[in-house]
Amino acid sequence: MRPFTSVISFDEAVRIVMSAAVPIERTDIVSISDADGRVLARDAVAPDDVPAFDRAAMDGYAVVAADTNGAAAATPRSLTCVGRLFTGEIPTRGVGHGECVEIATGAPMPPGADAVVIVEETTRVETQVIIRRGVTAGQNIGRRGADVRRGSTVVPSGRLLGPSQIGALAATGAARVDVFAKPRVAVLSTGNEVIEPGRGLGTGQVHDVNRFTVSAVVARHGGIPVPGTAIGDTVPALESALDRALAHDVVILSGGSSVGDRDLILDVLGARGEVLFHGVAVKPGKPTGFARVGHTPVFALPGYPASCLSNALILVAPFLRRVARLPPSEPRTVALPLSRRIVSAPGRHQFYTVRVVDGQAVPAFKSSGDITSMANADGYIEIPSEVNAVEEGTMVKVALF
To answer: Residue 62: which of 126, 121, 112 has the closest Cα?
Structure first.
């Protein structure tokens, strides 16, 4: 056994990890149908006005506004209807004084018309349209370029694309857009005892949990997980796997990061690069390391499933979001009374999972090795390193998953 030579605070670990998170420069071109949740890599500039023509904003009659001056219920004006216009049609004639054209919302305004009288303010008698309320020039018209002017920036570079931004891109006719690439993340589990789910367990064997939980965290926070098969606890096997993994933007290893004789990950990382820290004063997840091999950041997470997933959420997820140029993800929180007393590990910042039951925060954490400590929880509370216990009834802030 080799004890930890140094253990850093959680805040210091966050500082080191986030300072190593370099926003990705590589870009992709994607269809706007696949652009939701991506980050725009180049200003989207409108090639034309939107809308590209003056159009009716209401169903009614396109008129010369001056013809309706003084129109009211007691003093209506009568105009001759000379045509109809629907959306997608091109006007074939203009509107002169004393005339009007029936027009649908969104249809292009005919030449000569400068306003629309809404249908509710009219009565149609064969070709005559009785106007009961006057309009002013420009009324009930959507002007060309009212939404977007040609040459203007519709969506700026660096903006996270959602439904409304994608709609704006579509309105300008963009079918494909430049976005920042998602970082490719090698996700590897280690351990002679780790085998694939779906296979029967032999004595001393466990199914691989971490590859799947970590891959889910990576995918949810802007990366592309590239999982590999479990690696045996030998230096040659770890070196070979690491060499292949370094072709990716980020490497995440789980298992082999503690202080046992077969916990070799940090030895391999130290021989190939620089170990920035090994050991964090958190619970669960103390045996966590972070290194840089060449230009590639490498996380060494604990093998215990709850510890691995916890530190993937609190350290890896914010790191990946910065690399992927995504905005920080702030969990929803709720203040609740604690249902029973919790004793915390002295000197360690604890992330303690809880369930929300009948308006209370009910402790859910069992042990670092139990994935149900996370799976059966609704969120977690943070217990600072200087706090040894949280009493029953204390109002705590629950960060919801």
So the answer is: 112
